[in-house]
């Protein structure tokens, strides 16, 4: 007994001599969420075994939009970098995919990676321009960058110029793993392609989510929030404002470019207007984030679900559908600026993916465990 | 000298907000700055921390000329400040506000600074608010957070801009004790304050600014009793 006692005392002393405070983030709700998320992702991964092609195609769209929404939210929700030019990186990634596959003859999946790198490289000079601008001018600057990209790509004859071009069938059929999927599910080529695209979109959505979540919880996330709240105070407390913003902008561009490449690999047809579409790749994305709740991990998930349902039931209304979306977004900004998840999380006092740290003080910490020891 | 200001000058249009200020602060010293509203006190801090660039003159910190250094470099070199109008990181928790300063200003890992931040929260009376969003604090809480966050960067020179306004008598004496303790821990302090009785309880030297110029400096009691101060600065001494 005495050995036990001295042993544990020795351990706790060695553990960390002056450690009085600890930091945690987990809550019961966040632990349960993680426990549910893993089997859910596994079920989604196994879905091609049961689901029909239409469902897979719809989910492909949902996953890619979710990834774009998480990325836009990383810029806008924490650092306050309101970009209306993310189509610059969707389009550049998409065109890079076409260039690497059609002109360069590379494998499509490898080309998606390279498309991300290309978008990241384009983001560096773009950042040097737009970071000189503040507030609304920053937003306008990001849009101008996208327009410049669109106009340049419209001049490239090898990629179809202003009217665009299609992906040759042999590019799609050269995809790694196509034969494997065909045999596994005993399906034809086009269906097998949809399955691979679906898996890639799932990997993209989950990967983006994990990346954004980890970034927000890291020292970069801390710095980003500080920058969003007060650039002067952040700079005065030692935050490298420029490098932090540049880092996050380039990382976002890389993943946005990969999303663009994947989206247009699936579409198999590209044009400057489609690839650099403000409505498709930024306006809808902003709608998703604002509806769901800006600045949270949960918001884009809820937003993309709402967006999908609205589109499913109302897209037939044509331009009235767009007016409806806009109206809904404005109503929400006026009456619930924190979005659906913002309202819910406050009502229920719950956080499924907590980003903020909780300091656990010495009193609560020692009361339970070390009562008898002295 | 830890801080030397040489002929420091800064104008806004035709207004000379800081006008040829010469100042020396010795390491370990506590210096007070008083002066009417608009005298240029906050502008002086903005020049020292680099948020504003001077039109003329030089700033030396710890023997190095930092006149052209960006704010971040000055923070890392050891200059910490509180803002007169609080600039909390509203969407972070109070504890995380300190973490930003400790991790980025002191360039340390998170695990190494948690205890130090917790200690500062206790000393500044913010420990019960540690996990609250900073945006939910009232003005008093925000002012305490300014001081706490500046301390979390473990500065060697601490610039305090009007932190005692609006406090009760008891809170004010607590604050005086805290600033004294900070000084005793070896941190040099320059404190701008309208609450003169709090200021003179801590500082050993007083500088008076008016219209951007240094009017008089010296031992607090004799400065407060001087003809210059009673002339330009009557309201507050009473
Ligand atoms: N950024 C600025 N732009 C223009 N005028 C300023 C600025 N900052 C301060 N001033 C002016 O400079 C003068 C000194 O201001 P300040 O340093 O804030 O005084 P104090 O802190 O002593 O009250 C005031 O007249 C103020 O209006
Ligand atoms: Mg002032």
Overview of the molecule:
Chain A has helices at residues 2-15, 28-46, 53-78, 87-103, 108-130, 136-153, 169-173, 178-185, 189-217, 219-229, 231-236, 241-267, 272-275, 278-292, 298-314, 319-335, 339-348, 362-369, and strands at 22-24, 165-166, 269-270, 358-360. With 374 residues, chain A is mainly α. In chain A, the strands form 2 sheets. In chain A, strands 1-4 form a two-stranded antiparallel sheet. In chain A, α3 packs across α14, α4 (87-103) packs across α12 (241-267) and α14 packs across α15 (298-314). Mean pLDDT of chain A is 88; it is low at 1-16 and 364-374. In chain B, 39% of the residues lie in helices and 25% in strands. In chain B, the strands form 2 sheets. In chain B, strands 6-7-8-3-9-10 form a 6-stranded mixed β-sheet, sandwiched between helices. Chain B has a domain at 3-78 and 155-234: P-loop containing nucleotide triphosphate hydrolases (Rossmann fold). Chain B has 10 helices and 10 strands. In chain B, α3 (94-106) crosses α4 and α3 (94-106) runs parallel beside α5. Classes of the chains: A mainly alpha (374), B alpha/beta (238). Chain A binds chain B through residues 18-23, 78, 219, 222-223, 225-226, 228-230, 232-241, 295, 356-359, 361-362, and chain B through 49-51, 70-72, 75-76, 81, 83, 87-93, 95-97, 99-101, 103-107, 110, 114-115, 117-119, 121, 127, 130-131, 133, 149, 153. Adenosine-5'-diphosphate binds next to β2 and α1 of chain B. The site of magnesium ion has 3 residues of chain B, from α1.
């Amino acid at each position: 007994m005495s050995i036990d006692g001295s042993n544990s005392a020795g351990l706790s002393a060695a553990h960390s001599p002056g450690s009085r405070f600890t930091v945690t983030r987990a809550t019961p709700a966040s632990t349960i969420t993680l426990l549910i998320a893993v089997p859910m992702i596994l079920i989604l991964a196994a879905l091609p075994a049961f689901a029909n092609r239409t469902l897979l195609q719809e989910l492909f769209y949902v996953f890619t939009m979710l990834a774009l929404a998480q990325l836009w939210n990383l810029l806008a929700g924490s650092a306050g970098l309101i970009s209306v030019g993310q189509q610059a990186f969707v389009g550049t990634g998409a065109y890079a995919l076409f260039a690497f596959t059609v002109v360069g003859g590379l494998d499509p999946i490898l080309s998606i990676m390279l498309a991300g790198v290309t978008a990241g490289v384009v983001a560096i000079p773009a950042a040097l321009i737009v970071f000189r601008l503040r507030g609304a001018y920053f937003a306008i600057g990001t849009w101008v960058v996208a327009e410049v990209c669109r106009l340049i790509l419209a001049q490239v004859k090898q990629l179809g110029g202003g009217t665009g071009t299609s992906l040759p069938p042999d590019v799609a059929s050269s995809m790694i793993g196509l034969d494997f999927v065909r045999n596994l599910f005993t399906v034809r080529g086009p269906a097998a392609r949809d399955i691979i695209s679906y898996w890639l979109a799932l990997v993209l959505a989950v990967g983006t989510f994990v990346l954004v979540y980890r970034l927000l919880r890291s020292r970069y996330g801390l710095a980003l929030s500080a920058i969003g709240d007060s650039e002067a105070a952040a700079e005065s407390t030692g935050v490298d404002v420029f490098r932090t913003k540049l880092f996050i902008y380039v990382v976002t561009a890389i993943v946005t470019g990969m999303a663009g490449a994947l989206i247009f690999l699936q579409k198999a047809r590209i044009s400057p207007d489609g690839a650099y579409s403000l409505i498709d790749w930024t306006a809808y994305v902003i709608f998703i984030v604002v509806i769901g709740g800006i600045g949270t991990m949960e918001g884009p998930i809820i937003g993309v679900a709402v967006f999908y349902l609205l589109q499913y039931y109302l897209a037939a209304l044509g331009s009235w559908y767009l007016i409806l979306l806009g109206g809904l977004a404005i109503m929400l900004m006026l009456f619930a600026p924190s979005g659906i998840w913002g309202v819910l999380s406050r009502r229920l006092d719950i956080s499924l993916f907590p980003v903020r740290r909780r300091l656990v003080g010495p009193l609560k910490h020692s009361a339970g465990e070390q009562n008898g020891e002295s | 000298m830890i801080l030397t200001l040489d002929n420091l000058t800064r104008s806004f249009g035709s207004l000379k907000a800081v006008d040829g200020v010469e100042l020396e602060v010795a390491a370990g010293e506590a210096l007070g700055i008083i002066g009417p509203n608009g005298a240029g006190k906050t502008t002086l801090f903005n020049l020292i921390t680099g948020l504003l660039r001077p039109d003329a003159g030089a700033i030396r910190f710890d023997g190095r000329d930092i006149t052209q250094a960006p704010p971040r470099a000055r923070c890392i070199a050891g200059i910490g400040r509180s803002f007169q109008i609080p600039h909390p990181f509203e969407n972070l928790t109070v504890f995380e506000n300190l973490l930003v300063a400790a991790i980025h200003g002191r360039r340390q890992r998170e695990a190494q600074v948690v205890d130090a931040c917790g200690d500062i929260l206790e000393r500044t009376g913010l420990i019960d608010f540690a996990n609250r969003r900073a945006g939910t604090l009232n003005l008093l809480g925000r002012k305490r957070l300014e001081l706490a966050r500046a301390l979390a960067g473990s500065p060697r020179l601490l610039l305090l801009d009007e932190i005692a306004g609006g406090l009760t008598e008891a809170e004010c004496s607590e604050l005086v004790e805290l600033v004294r303790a900070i000084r005793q821990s070896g941190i040099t302090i320059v404190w701008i304050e309208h609450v003169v009785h709090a200021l003179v309880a801590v500082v050993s030297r007083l500088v008076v600014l008016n219209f951007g110029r240094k009017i008089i400096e010296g031992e607090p009691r004799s400065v407060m009793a001087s003809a210059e101060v009673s002339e330009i600065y009557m309201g507050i001494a009473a």
